[in-house]
Design goal:
PH-domain like; transmembrane; PSI_Ycf4_assembly; alpha+beta; four-stranded mixed sheet; five-stranded antiparallel sheet; 3 helices; transmembrane helix; 184 residues; 9 strands; chloroplast
Length: 184
Amino acid sequence: MNWQSEWLRVEPIMGSRRISNFCWACITSLGALGFFLVGIPSYLGKDLIPVLPSQQIVFVPQGIVMCFYGIAGLFPSFYLWCTILWNVGSGYNIFDKREGIICLFRWGFPGENRRICIRFSMKDIQAIRVEVREAISPRRVLHMKVKGQQDVPLTRISENLTLREMEEKAAELARFLHVSMEGP
């Protein structure tokens, strides 16, 4: 869902608000809550939730371990929910021919560096490079070669584009920037 005119190209970047993150956040939250809700009643000696019987679980050591697993599981689930809420990693790439500037903007974690904006001059762009590694989980990443710096990734590693889509995206961008395209 890119937007492009003669002088400007904007590419939105999806962040943490993906279905897989929602699924993992729900799974870890429910799992941690389940462990905790089985461990606590073993200490109290009565069931809080009839579906989760805890009469057969002795508090020392099983109940303590269940509570520990429940509390420990809440940390990664809290982290996942926060990254989803803050949409960490989302942003956009702006290629502006009039100003001669490329701006890569991403949202980070709250704090002093929440807004991450990296600017390059279009004169410093040497090429657009496609990195392809075929394996069990293929890796297809679009890079921008910048003079005197490391290659800058323009797509996420987990972005599941086919090889054809990746090449088309690279070719469009290379044409827009008037630079060469390097393939695998």
